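Notebook entry, structure prediction.
Reason for the run: the old model in the group folder had no record of what sequence produced it. Starting over properly, with the input documented here first.
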Amino acid sequence: MAKLDLEEENRIRTVIAIIEKNPYVNRAKLCRIHRVHKGRRLKGVSNARTAGGHNKRLNTTQNEGFKRFISYLIKIGQNPTLNELRYEANWILQHSGDNHGVSTA
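New structure, fully documented this time:
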């Protein structure tokens, strides 16, 4: 994942400020001048590179609990399926106070 580019963010803020002062300005030309991609960012959608996404990492305590769950499934002779693992990871995150779960992919 690419890191946040502060120079690009400053250019976007400049373009947004110009548009707020003059809503009838030619946006395409303004974006070309300031080297900003016209689209979602100008509509106020946050940068996807810094959004965090759905994929979450468990901290060390949560990871140990997850490993114990997998060991338990193996011990009782049940192969852990992807859905079961995803459900357990989401359960751990939910009961730790995290509102977002792991990815469904």
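Summary: The mean pLDDT is 80.
The old model has been moved to the deprecated folder.
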